[in-house]
Amino acid sequence: MADQVAPGTMAEAGNTGARGLDAQIAPSYVHEAHHGRPASWATTSIVIVGFVIGGIALPVGPIWWLFWLGTGIVVLGAIFGAAVHIFDDWY
């Protein structure tokens, strides 16, 4: 019964009740997520448009210039994504 917490002690600011290793292994790095940012949505949209254009070009012809246009759009979307740092939180 020695480990029981007295009433009201957990309400103190900053007291998480952690003991031993739990108290010592506090996260020292706060990871800022990039998911859901407008730049992520824009990059995803650009890449999807490129895939759709390239995907349509193959069964209707194949229309090779349209396929390579779609491929170029995908590459430009990936470059845009790298430029706005949406890949920095890859873990």
Architecture overview:
The protein has 91 residues and is an all-alpha fold. It has a domain at 36-91. The protein has 3 helices and no strands. It has helices spanning 21-24, 38-57, 64-83. It is elongated and about 80 Å long. It starts with 20 loop residues before the first helix and ends in an 8-residue tail after the last helix.
Order of helices and strands: HHH
- Give me the secondary-structure category: mainly alpha
Helix content: 40-55%
Number of strands: 0
> Rg from C-alpha positions?
25 Å
Strand content bin: under 5%
Main sheet? none
How would you sum up the global shape?
Answer: elongated
Count of DSSP helices?
A: 3
Low-confidence spans: pLDDT under 50, at least 5 residues? none
Give the end-to-end Cα distance, rounded to a whole number of Å.
43 Å
**Integer average pLDDT:** 78
Keywords:
91 residues; mainly alpha; 3 helices
In short:
This protein has helices at about 20-25, 40-55, 65-85.
Strand and helix map with partners:
Elements: H1 21-24, H2 38-57, H3 64-83
Helix pairs in contact: 2-3
